What does this fold into?
Amino acid sequence: MLYLANDHAGYSLKEELVKYLKKHNIEYDDLGSYSAERTDFPQYAKLLSEKVASSPDNRGVLICGTGIGMSIAANRNPKIRAALCKNVKTARLSRQHNDANVLVLAGRSTCKFRAKRILATFLSTDTLGGIYAERMREIDN
It folds into this structure.
């Protein structure tokens, strides 16, 4: 399952990604927030992280103003590898090299066209395993 969550600064960009997901028949669960009214990002990062961590097949997308707060909060969960991605290359490498299971986007500085390309890349890229998996195990130990 793909989970989405955002704070107020990420609401507009999330709505654009929802349109993309619907157009491409990609199943998702929107965990909020559901408006541009002020919210606190940690509660959404925690909720999404718990959902994603419940199955190795789950993925998530978090969006806040800079993406930094969501990244920090999500990575508190030891089963989460949240990656703040600014372009297609970092999205691809976050999956290939780091087996990232949560994509984080900056709602205030990522245009909707780039965000859709980043999301598509994140969802379609697999991990390379090998030495990269070994490095992920080092992080876990």
